[in-house]
Amino acid sequence: MSSVKTTTARVRIRPEIKSEAEDIIHALGLSVSTAFELFYRQIILNRGLPFDVRIPNTTTRKAVEDARKRHGEKFATTEALFKDLGI
Asked: From CA 48, how far away is CA 72, in angstroms rounded?
């Protein structure tokens, strides 16, 4: 019987982030160790983070800021939106 070698990883994270993430991890039936191993395996498979990490350009930052402030065009119907988009 062979034993699998493991190592310890320590991270610093805000308590509320840790708690919320662990609630989700446990709801999925996983341990935190298993979730971290899955994350690390995805990093290896993707040869990078398993999601896009980008610094948004000025146009994107402004659009996000406007959306958060609820600025921007409003449409009464989806048809009006699609017409404006040329769809």
From this structure: 35
Q: Which single residue is written with the structure tokens 């989806």?
A: 78
Please identify which residue in the block is written with the tokens 């398993």. 50
Answer yes or no: is 36 within a domain: yes
DSSP 57: -
What total number of domains does the chain contain? 2
Range of the domain at 79: 54-87
Across 9-54, where does the E strand assignment appear?
none
Rounded to whole angstroms, how far apart are CA atoms 18 and 14?
Answer: 6
Structure pTM? Answer: 0.58
Chain segment 35-87, per-residue pLDDT in tens: 999 999 999 999 999 998 888 899 999 988 988 888 888 889 999 989 999 99
Cα separation values, 23 from 30, 38, 65, Å: 10, 17, 30
Residue 18, domain member (yes or no): yes
